[in-house]
Amino acid sequence: MLAYLGASVAGLAYAPTLKAQTPQETISTRMGENQRFDPAVVVDIARQLAKKPFAAPPNDLPDVFANLNPEQYAAIRYTQPPTWGSEARGIAVEPLHRGFVFRDAVDLFIVEDGAVRRIGYNPSQFDFGRINLPNNLTDIRYSGFKLIAQVGNGKPFDFAVVQGGTFFRALARGQSFGAIARALTLRPAEARGEEFPAFRAFWLERPAVGSNSITVHGVLDSESTTGAVRMTFRPGDMTIVDVETTLFPRVNLEHVGLGGLASTYLYGPNDLLNSDDIRPAVYESSGLQMLNGSGEWLWRPLHNPETLQISAFVDNSPRGFGLLQRERSFEAFQDDDQRFERRPSVWIEPLGDWAQGSVQLLEIPTDAEINDNILTYWRPKAPMAAGSEVALAYRQYWGWNSPERPPLATVTQTRSGRGSGGRRRRFTVDFAGDAFGDTLPADLKSVLTVGPGTFQNLKLLPYPERKTVRVAFELDPGNENACEMRLILEAGGKPISETWLYRWTP
């Protein structure tokens, strides 16, 4: 639940000591090596940092690491056994080196039997390949960490990576990494530029023997706000991450993104871009799924536009949203290396009442699949005031499907191509469901609205052998450069499909 707390808080007795300290000194002083761990202190560290001017992290990464290319950075290997890897605790931890685009440093601490121990940097614990190290290399700390699942009789697998800014990603057993989560998003796509908060430190609690979860605490910092984040990871056939965040704005925050997710969409059946590529499609996520506060299921296929597109789906007390990969066949992508059909779907379930706001979707033009050009998040309607405290929580599900699925027919594919003439475009939308087997509902109909623009040649085409109904139509945008479309199947005066939403742009 979003809770706006008073700015008058306890714990200010530390302020005189903290005033002259850097953020890293503050962290080490309050809860560093050999101190007792207390989750409340993590929150209070963020609270105290918010009372001080922002101090940018030092630019202390040696050039030999800052100038690495992707292949050189990927060649750096940690050569030591992962922390807790031999203790039958189900989850192990491995630190990640700084370098390439991962330049910011974070302090890593582990918590064992209530005591804090810092993971100190030691270059002898890494294999650097052909990189020539400087002789005077100091403790440059780390860029983040990865989590390794060691549960059951299955092969251990890396199920989560926390690295760079406030970014982290996870996956389920058998998958490949794809979409990226953000602990906090600030001012995306604004003219003054996006602000990227970053984690300063993490405390990782040692899992109980035989457990299947690990709790991680972090402090994030930026010019506009600080925050404390508690994440509990539970890997498996569906990996679940509980995220609890408390923010301490330094200034009034007008544009905040919560539960943020980023992904890649280059082209697909609805957006071929005249691509001269051996692959028929290139994307990590098919679309944005939403379950709004009134219980309506919405599906918005993703698009790689020619100009930046920002969509806002206004809601009150959302029940969930996420970026889903609905295409699970190799034939859809024909990519032997990337295996996009194995990328995770990610579902965000708010815990508590998130009140009024909107699910925002940013679709950013790109001509390269390495760019995360899709961003979605919840934007609260109410600003966050400077000096306030804002607490929120949500649950993430990373897996082959979302945990909640519409009890209705769902969209399996959207296709678009040249129409009968002029600027007209032809669309087909396939809905699949058990109701579309041998006997279709007698009064089945499609309800399509377009604005601005018009449509024509609306057809309903059943394919009972695939339990699919295809809706075909032609969009005539006239002189418009953006048309919003909404399509749903009905029978007996009630919806029997999720709602398909789409924005056409030239």
From TrEMBL:
Principal location class: periplasm
Location in or out of the cell: Periplasm
Family: Belongs to the OpgD/OpgG family.
GO biological process: beta-glucan biosynthetic process
Domain Glucan biosynthesis periplasmic MdoG C-terminal residue range list: 37-504
Domain of life of the organism encoding this protein: Bacteria
Name of the featured protein: Glucans biosynthesis protein
GO molecular function, one term: catalytic activity
Organism per entry: Microvirga lupini
